[in-house]
Amino acid sequence: MNRxxxxxxxxxxxxxxxxxxxxxxxxxxxxxGITFNQQLKNLRFGxxxxxxxxxxxxxxxxxxxxxFLKSIENTAIIFGGMAGLDAWExxxxxxxDPEDTDWDSGVIFGCGSMSMxxxxxxxxxxxxxxxxRWLGSRVIEQTMNSGTSAFLGGxxxxxxxxxxNSSACSTGTEAVIQGYERIKxxxxxxxxCGSCESHGPYNWxxxxxxxxxxxxxxxxxxxxxxPMSADAxxxxxxxxxxxxxxxxxxxxxxxxxxxxxxxxxxxxxxGGQRNGGxxxxxxxxxxxxxxxxxxxxxxxxxxxxxxxxxHLTSTMADLLEIKNWAEALQLKRxxxxxxxxxxxxxxxxxxxxxxxxxxxxSLQLYKNxxxxxxxxxxxxxxxxxxxDETEIPSQTINFEGEIIAxxxxxxxxxxxxxxxxxxxx
Amino acid sequence: xxxxxxxxxxxxxxxxxIIEPYLGVDTKIDDLTGDEDLINDLKINSAHIVDIIIDIExxxxxxIDDESINKxxxxxxxxxxxxxRINQ
Lengths: 425, 88
Hints:
The complex is a heterodimer of chains A (425) and B (88).
Chain A: E1 5-14, E2 17-18, H1 20-29, E3 34-36, H2 38-42, E4 49-51, H3 57-63, H4 66-71, H5 75-90, E5 105-111, H6 120-128, H7 140-143, H8 147-156, E6 162-163, H9 171-184, E7 190-196, H10 201-209, E8 241-248, H11 249-254, E9 261-270, H12 284-297, E10 307-309, H13 317-329, E11 338-340, H14 343-346, H15 353-367, E12 369-370, E13 397-398, E14 403-410, E15 414-422
Parallel strand pairs in A: 5-6, 5-7, 10-11, 10-14
Antiparallel strand pairs in A: 1-2, 1-8, 1-9, 3-4, 7-8, 9-15, 12-13, 14-15
Helix pairs in contact in A: 5-8, 9-15, 12-13
Chain B: H1 9-19, H2 46-60, H3 66-71, H4 75-87
């Protein structure tokens, strides 16, 4: 079986916009979601800025019952659940039958680290104080990595694969590729794919200790995330959630669904922590293979790519990433496609980064725009050897291209690359 | 059938408040006789019984031993156990 797979629904809880409408407006205006974080300052972090979606209690109560909100505090599940339910509704899919299981639909909702959310501190203290008896029934689902997929599976009555992947900062893109492959093979008609990430000092402390979080912009939070810049100082930690409904083309057409984009192909690999790859650094050999393989199995050539949505975290690794794209595509400087970095607006949302970026890619293809990147006044001179600065727009522009390639990379020397094409009826 | 057994009204008010969020949308706490089985009749998820016990313990500042928990099948059972613990 070799089915074509399309994106028919989107949901998003982003630091710079909750819901598709606000998120799109932020992409159009290049609005930052990065703010000062007093808690990180109080805890003596070097980095005192972060990107967190501000979800009001009122908004939460539109998605969740009072009983749910009484016990579920993990923001990864709260944000992921909202994005997932929104994507389902956005796809025009019916509210599920309370009695029937939908055997043809599944969910892969990844998470980098579910258990490190701020809420866990209180629970760990209870255990240390000998009070585990009072933890209750709702802590497990907030610490298991599949907490969000389990929630969404129950809400939507899904009976196909209901699970979670976890692959560090590759998680979101990997979830979408895995869902794509499942539909392509005919094992599911429809997959809800996305990712989320717990937030707060427990999750970010060790990154701060590694000195890979931005430390020079505590007074100017919105300038902290500067992907591709000569003075990129580290990433700004963030959180959020993106969700996509993937569907086989036939079913999508049969039910007259709106199609945002087609997924042409993609691949997942690892450099094996050889050839320059380590736990924390990507092997260029692995990255190049992954990108080339995604292009090949998409049935296109490197020259067909009109835009790149980079991983680009605002660290010194951005230069290596650009070199790897250039090596993989074998394109000369004047042929290198346009490139943008969502992380310039919303920092690095770790496990949720890939899904947020893929929601952005789908929207851009559907609405014919290519979002600009913030803080790119000072592009790294080495990067300019591979990409002309006019291909790194600082403002959102009209996009007449058809194909966007997106890659995510993560700890463990793991790589993902996916290719999406604008849908034309 | 008699309505919820007459108990210290303070206990009843607190218990109603604890149990109410766990009831289905169609079930009204004030319509209960108190003899409905929490799991079979009121359709409370068995995992949530644990949370109700924890809420009762913290609300009344009491400890309920495992043996008593096994006997708490209805709202009236819960009232009996709470009464017993408070008066101990």
